[in-house]
Amino acid sequence: RQISTPVIVSGGISSLQDLRDCAKLNVPNITGVITGRALYENAFTVAEALSVLKGEEP
User: What predicted TM-score, i.e. pTM, was given to this entire model?
Assistant: First the structure.
């Protein structure tokens, strides 16, 4: 059963591959992803993350 509540993925995002994996879930109500530590540790940039989530490789 699906819910209509917006979902924000939080925890465990440490690489662009993790973002790719989230995008592959194809869950329509994922509205955000928290990537605090990964950004702080320069694992990727916001621009790279947005590109991956749009299906474009950086």
Answer: 0.81
